[in-house]
Write a structure and sequence with these properties.
Elements: H1 2-16, E1 26-35, E2 46-49, E3 56-57, E4 63-69, E5 74-78, E6 85-88, E7 97-99, E8 109-112, E9 115-118, E10 126-130, H2 143-146, E11 153-157, E12 166-170, E13 183-186, E14 189-190, E15 222-228, H3 231-234, E16 245-250, E17 259-271, H4 280-289, H5 294-297, H6 305-309, E18 313-325, E19 329-341, E20 348-362, E21 367-381, H7 395-401, H8 426-432, E22 433-453, E23 456-475, E24 489-512, E25 516-539, E26 564-586, E27 590-601, E28 610-621, E29 633-647, E30 659-661, E31 667-669, E32 680-693, E33 698-717, E34 726-749, E35 755-771, E36 778-782, E37 792-796, E38 804-807, E39 828-832, E40 837-847, E41 850-860, E42 863-866, H9 867-872, H10 875-879, H11 886-890, E43 906-908, E44 911-924, E45 933-947, E46 970-971, E47 978-988
C-alpha cells in the first residue's frame, strides 16, 4: 500500500511538470561559471538569490539558468575550494562569473539535519566532502568514498568480500551490545539499516556475516556526504543519533542546460597478501620433524590450495546520467550496472540501479515538489566462508590446512573429487555448494514545500524504504560434509524490511534590525518499521540427475520424519517524534544554536515511552572582531556545545512476553519482560577551533570531545534450565569516549603557476573506557578451533575499554617445547582492539589537464587476535597431517603443546596503507560537435600495506559475538583484502 500511495503521488507530481504558470512575476538569469586559473567550466556550483535557500547548480559545461523575483538584486555563487562571490544583477539577464580559488573555505554551504548552513555559521561538529575528495576506484557503497578522509570517523570493513558488512565508528564506540553504526539519511529519508540478507544457517562452514546495508547505492549518484559528529549537531535526530549521523545528498539536474554523462571502468583485483603456506616438499620434511608418519601423509601430489580458491577478480562498471531543466523544472535520470568478481571463486556482487531526481515549482515559485526515487537489484554470490566454522574450516580454512600432497581429483570417489570424513577438499566445496541471494530495494520520497510568507516555509516529506531478499542455498549430496553426504541440502529463506516516514516541518528565517538573524525550525515525524522473514529447508535428495524434485511428502530414510523444516518471524515498531531548532546570530559573529527532540518509541514500556534529547551550542567568529589581525587570520572561530542523543537499535517487544511455538503445538515463553527499560543515552560535550591563515592557504579544525553513554542496553541470558531464556536490562555504569581531532588543508602551490599542490590531513586520538560498572563482567569474542570450544578472549569490565582482550600471558616455550604461562596462566588485561590514533594524508597535484593524487591512512595503538593462527597454525596441527605456515613449522613448539588462548596469538595491529592513488587526464573539447568533456583515469587501491601483523590484514573484524554482545578486532579465516587497478573513462555529451 505504501508503494502504491507513493506511485499515485508521483503520477500527480509528474502531471505538475506540465504546468508553467504565466502569471509568475519573475525574470530569468542565465550565465556560466568558470575557473579563474585556466578558464575551465565548473560543475555543480551553487547559484542562488542572496538571502534565500533555493537556487540551482551549474551543469557539466558550467552553465546555469535561474528564475528569480523581479525585485531580486544579488546572486550568490559558491563552490567548495573557491571564494563565494556576490554579483549584482541590476537589469541584466546574463551573468558570467569567474571564481577565484584558494580563498576561505568557511564560506562553503554544508548540509545539516533538515536544512543547510554556511560552514562559517555552523556551531556543531560537522564535516563534509564532495566528489572532488571522494576515494576513487572500485567503490561498492557510500562509506568507502570517505574511508580515512575524515577526522573522528573510522570505517572498518568486516572483510574483503564484495558487499561485506561495515563498522563505522564516529568518535569512538559507545554501545556494549549493538547499534554502533551511525544513522544514514539519504535525501532526507532515514534508513532502517537492518540486515536484509538472511544466512542459510551453519551447514558446516560457519554462519556468514551480515551484508552492507548501503551497497544498493550507485556511488556515481552521490554529490556530497556530510557527517554530524557531535551531539549538538546530531541531536536533531534524537534517539537515533547517539553514534553520529551520515547525510548523503544525491546529484540533481541543472537549469538552462541538458547534460548526458557516460562512464565506464574495468578493474583487476588480486589478493593483497596470502598466507605463507608450505609446499609439498616443505610439508613432508617438516611433518616428519614433527613426528608424523610420512608414509601415510604422502599422497604423491603437489597442490597449492590457495591457487585453487583464489583468482584474479574482474570488475565492470557502467553508469550513465541525463539531466537538465528550465526555470520551473529540474530533473536527473541515472542508471548503472556493476559486476564485481571476488578474489575467491564463487563470490561476487552484481548490482543494477535506476534513479530519478526531479523538482518542479508552481505558483510564482510559491510551491515546490521534489521527488527522489532509487530502485536497485543486487545479486550476491557467496563462497562458503563463515565467521565461526569448526576446526575443519570454511573454504579458506580448509585450503590453508589442506595436505598439499593430496590430489584434487579421484576417479574412484563420488563426484570425482578426493574427499574423506576428516579432510575437506576446497575444490569440492566450490563445485558442490551453490549459495546466492537476490535483494531488491526501493528508496523513495516525495516532498512539497510551500513559501507561506516571506521567510516562512512549510514542508511535508513522505518517504519509503522497502527491501526484499531471497536467499537460495543448494548443496549436492556428493559433498562429504557432516550430514550432507548422500543427503544434500536445500535452503530457501526470504526477508522483507519496510519502513515509511512522514515529516512536517515549519521553518522561519528572518533578519530584524541590522544585527540580528533568526532561523527557527519546528517539526513532527512519524516512522514505522516492519521486519519479517521465513525459511524452509529440505534434505534427502536421492539423485542429482533430476532437475526438479517434488519433496512435499518426502521422508527420512527410516520413514519417520519429514525431510524438510520451516520457520518464520515478524517484528515491528513505531517512532513518533517532535523536534525544534533555533539558530540565532548577532552581527554575524556571535552564534547560538538550541535543539530539542522528543522521541516516543513502541519498543519501550509505558514507564519510559518517551525520550528527551536536547542540545546547545555556541560559536564566536573572532576574525570579525577588530582586535584580531585579519592579515594573520582570514577566519577564526571557536565553538562549544553540549547535547544528549539516544540509541534504540535493539529488538522490539522486550517490554512484553514473547512466545515461540514448538513442534508439538505448545508455546514457550522466551523472555522475561521489562516494562521499566530506559533509553540508552549519550551525553557529549565538545569545543572546537576553525581557522584560516596565510591568505587562506592553510585552513584547519581542532576539536576536543568528551562523550558518556549510560543506561546501557544488554540482553542477559539465564542459566538453563530456567522458565525463560533472557531479559533486556539497563546496565549501571557508562562507556566514555574522549579525544582530540585535527584536520588541516594546505595549498602548497596555488596561483603561482599552472602547477598546483594541495595537501590535506587528519588525525584522531580516542580514549575509550568503561566506568562505574561495578563487579559486572560481560564475556564476548568467541574463539573457534579444535580444543577451543567455549573459549573467548574479550571482556567488558570496569576500568577498561570496550574490545578489551583478557588473556594469559605467553612467555615462550620451555626446553620441551611447551608453552610457558607465568602467574598461573591468569587471565589479565592484554590490550584493546580499538585504535588509539588514526591518520589520513592526501596529496593532490594538478598541471593543466593532468592531475594526480595519492592517499595514505594509518592506525596505531590497537591489537588483533589471530584466531586463524590459534586454530590452524600450530605444531600439533602439523603432526596431525594438516598444513601450517613456514613460521609455525620452524618454531620450537612441541607437537604436544595445547593451542590455548593466550597473548601468543595477540598481535599489534599498527599499519600504514597506501589506500588510493589515481592519475587523471581531462581532454578539452572546445567547439566539439559531440563531446563537452572526456576524462581518462587510472586508479590503484590498497597498493601497499606496512604492518607487523602476521595475518593478511589488520583491518578486519570477524563477527565473534557472544550472546549478542559484539566482538572487536578478531581475525578468523576472513575473506582477504584485494589490491585493485582500475582503468576508467568518462564522457560528457
Amino acid at each position: 500500500m505504501q508503494f502504491k500511495r507513493l506511485l499515485s503521488i508521483s503520477l500527480f507530481f509528474a502531471l505538475c511538470f506540465l504546468f508553467n504558470p504565466i502569471w509568475a512575476q519573475t525574470k530569468t538569469i542565465a550565465g556560466k561559471v568558470t575557473d579563474q586559473k585556466d578558464g575551465s567550466s565548473l560543475i555543480g556550483v551553487s547559484v542562488r538569490v542572496k538571502g534565500t535557500t533555493g537556487g540551482t547548480v551549474t551543469g557539466v559545461d558550467g552553465s546555469f539558468r535561474l528564475s528569480v523575483p523581479n525585485d531580486a538584486n544579488t546572486l550568490e555563487i559558491s563552490y567548495i575550494g573557491y571564494k563565494t562571490q556576490s554579483v549584482d544583477i541590476g537589469g541584466r539577464t546574463t551573468v558570467n562569473v569567474v571564481l577565484i580559488t584558494d580563498e576561505t573555505s568557511l564560506d562553503e554551504v554544508v548540509i545539516i539535519g533538515y536544512g543547510s548552513q554556511k560552514k562559517s555559521d555552523v556551531t556543531g561538529g560537522v564535516v563534509s566532502i564532495g566528489t572532488k575528495d571522494f576515494n576513487k576506484g572500485v567503490i561498492n557503497s557510500p562509506e568507502q568514498l570517505l574511508q580515512g578522509r575524515m577526522a573522528g570517523v573510522q570505517v572498518t570493513p568486516a572483510s574483503g568480500e564484495p558487499g561485506s558488512g561495515i563498522n563505522i565508528r564516529i568518535r569512538g564506540t559507545t554501545s556494549v551490545r549493538s547499534g554502533n553504526n551511525p544513522l544514514f539519511v539519504i535525501d532526507g529519508v532515514p534508513l532502517d539499516g537492518s540486515n536484509i540478507s538472511d544466512g542459510a544457517g551453519d551447514y558446516g562452514a560457519g554462519n556468514q556475516s551480515a551484508r552492507n546495508p548501503l551497497s544498493f547505492m550507485n556511488p556515481d549518484d552521490i554529490a556530497n556526504i556530510t557527517v554530524l559528529k557531535d551531539a549538538s549537531a546530531a541531536a536533531i535526530y534524537g534517539s537515533r543519533g547517539a553514534n553520529g549521523v551520515v547525510l548523503i545528498t544525491t546529484k540533481k539536474g541543472t537549469a538552462g542546460s541538458q547534460s548526458f554523462n557516460f562512464s565506464t571502468s574495468v578493474s583487476l583485483a588480486n589478493t593483497l597478501n596470502r598466507y605463507d603456506i608450505m609446499d609439498a616438499a616443505q610439508f613432508l620434511t617438516q611433518a616428519k620433524n614433527a613426528g608424523a608418519d610420512i608414509a601415510v601423509l604422502d599422497k604423491k601430489s603437489n597442490v597449492d590450495w590457495q591457487d585453487e580458491i583464489f583468482r584474479t577478480g574482474v570488475t565492470q562498471n557502467y553508469s550513465m546520467g541525463f539531466g537538465g531543466g528550465n526555470d520551473n523544472t529540474l530533473y536527473r535520470f541515472s542508471g548503472s550496472y556493476s559486476d564485481q568478481e571476488g578474489t575467491i571463486k564463487n563470490s561476487g556482487l552484481k548490482r543494477f540501479t535506476g534513479r530519478v531526481n526531479a523538482s518542479h515549482e508552481l505558483f510564482n515559485d510559491k510551491v515546490k515538489f521534489d521527488l527522489q526515487l532509487t530502485t536497485s537489484k543486487i545479486d550476491n554470490q557467496y563462497a562458503p566462508i563463515g565467521d565461526d566454522a569448526g576446526f575443519q574450516g570454511n573454504l579458506l580454512g580448509a585450503a590453508l590446512q589442506a595436505n598439499p600432497t593430496i590430489p584434487i581429483f579421484s576417479p574412484t570417489t563420488k563426484g570425482g573429487f578426493t574427499q574423506s570424513n576428516d579432510y575437506r577438499n576446497p575444490a569440492a566445496m566450490l563445485a558442490f555448494i551453490n549459495d546466492n541471494d537476490e535483494v531488491n530495494k526501493v528508496l523513495a520520497n516525495i516532498s512539497l514545500s510551500w513559501n507561506v510568507a516571506k521567510g516562512l516555509m512549510y514542508k511535508v516529506n513522505y518517504g519509503v524504504d522497502n527491501s526484499t531478499a531471497t536467499r537460495k542455498l543448494g548443496i549436492s549430496r556428493l559433498l562429504n560434509f557432516n550430514d550432507i553426504l548422500d543427503r544434500g541440502r536445500a535452503v530457501l529463506s526470504n526477508r522483507e524490511l519496510s519502513s515509511s516516514v512522514i515529516e512536517h516541518t515549519l521553518n522561519y528565517n528572518t533578519t530584524f534590525g541590522s544585527d540580528h538573524t533568526l532561523d527557527a525550525l519546528g517539526g513532527f515525524s512519524y516512522q514505522k518499521f516492519s521486519n519479517s522473514g521465513f525459511f524452509t529447508s529440505a534434505q534427502f535428495f536421492l539423485t542429482d540427475d533430476i532437475p526438479y524434485v517434488d519433496n512435499l511428502d518426502g521422508v527420512n530414510n527410516d520413514g519417520s520424519n519429514k525431510a524438510f523444516n520451516a520457520g518464520s518471524d515478524r517484528a515491528g515498531s513505531d517512532l513518533q517524534s517532535y523536534f525544534t531548532r533555533l539558530n540565532y546570530a548577532y552581527k554575524g559573529k556571535y552564534l547560538l544554536t538550541g535543539t530539542l527532540r522528543v522521541d516516543g518509541s513502541s519498543k519501550f514500556g509505558a514507564n519510559n515511552k518517551y525520550g528527551y534529547f536536547p542540545s546547545f551550542a555556541g560559536a564566536w567568529r573572532l576574525s570579525e572582531e577588530s582586535f584580531v589581525n585579519k592579515d594573520v587570520f582570514q577566519s577564526l572561530k571557536i565553538r562549544a556545545g553540549y547535547g544528549i542523543t539516544g540509541n534504540q537499535e535493539f529488538p522490539g517487544g522486550i517490554t512484553r512476553a514473547v512466545f515461540q511455538t514448538n513442534s508439538s503445538g505448545s508455546l514457550t515463553q522466551r523472555n522475561n519482560p521489562n516494562p521499566d527499560i530506559k533509553w540508552e543515552e549519550t551525553k557529549q560535550f565538545g569545543v572546537g577551533l576553525d581557522f584560516e591563515v596565510l591568505n587562506s592557504r592553510l585552513s584547519g579544525t581542532v576539536d576536543y570531545f568528551n562523550k558518556s553513554t549510560e543506561n546501557l542496553l544488554l540482553q542477559v541470558y539465564y542459566a538453563q534450565p530456567a522458565p525463560v531464556d533472557f531479559k533486556f536490562i539497563n546496565l549501571q555504569g557508562q562507556v566514555k569516549n574522549k579525544g582530540v581531532e585535527f584536520s588541516l588543508n594546505y595549498k602548497v602551490l596555488a596561483n603561482e603557476s599552472k602547477l598546483t599542490w594541495d595537501v590535506s590531513g587528519n588525525a584522531t586520538y580516542v580514549d575509550n573506557k568503561v566506568e562505574n560498572f561495578g563487579s559486572t563482567i560481560i564475556p564476548t569474542g568467541n574463539i573457534n578451533g579444535q580444543g577451543l570450544s567455549g573459549a573467548y578472549v574479550q571482556r567488558i569490565s570496569d576500568g577498561f575499554p570496550l574490545g578489551a582482550f583478557y588473556l594469559p600471558e605467553f612467555a615462550g616455550y620451555n626446553a620441551e617445547g611447551l608453552a610457558i604461562y607465568p602467574n598461573d596462566a591468569a587471565f589479565r588485561y592484554s590490550g584493546s582492539a580499538l585504535p588509539k590514533y588514526s591518520f589520513g594524508l592526501n596529496n593532490a597535484f594538478a598541471y593543466k589537464n593532468l592531475s594526480f593524487n595519492f592517499f595514505l591512512n594509518a592506525s596505531t595503538g590497537f591489537f588483533v587476535y589471530n584466531n586463524t593462527d590459534n586454530a590452524l597454525f600450530t605444531k600439533g596441527s602439523l603432526k596431525n597431517g594438516r598444513n601450517v605456515t613456514n613460521d609455525a613449522a620452524s618454531s620450537i613448539e612441541s607437537a604436544l603443546n595445547a593451542p590455548e588462548v593466550s597473548t601468543r596469538f595477540l598481535e599489534k595491529g599498527d599499519f600504514l596503507r597506501l589506500s588510493n592513488a589515481s592519475v587523471n587526464y581531462r581532454f578539452k573539447m572546445q567547439n566539439n560537435k559531440y563531446f563537452k568533456g572526456l576524462n581518462v583515469s587510472l586508479t590503484g587501491q590498497n597498493l601497499f600495506l606496512i604492518t607487523n601483523y602476521s595475518g593478511v590484514d589488520p583491518e578486519v573484524n570477524t563477527n565473534k559475538a557472544r550472546n549478542g554482545v559484539p566482538s572487536l578486532g578478531i581475525d578468523y579465516t576472513s575473506y582477504p583484502t584485494s589490491r585493485i587497478f582500475s582503468l576508467g573513462l568518462s564522457a560528457d555529451f
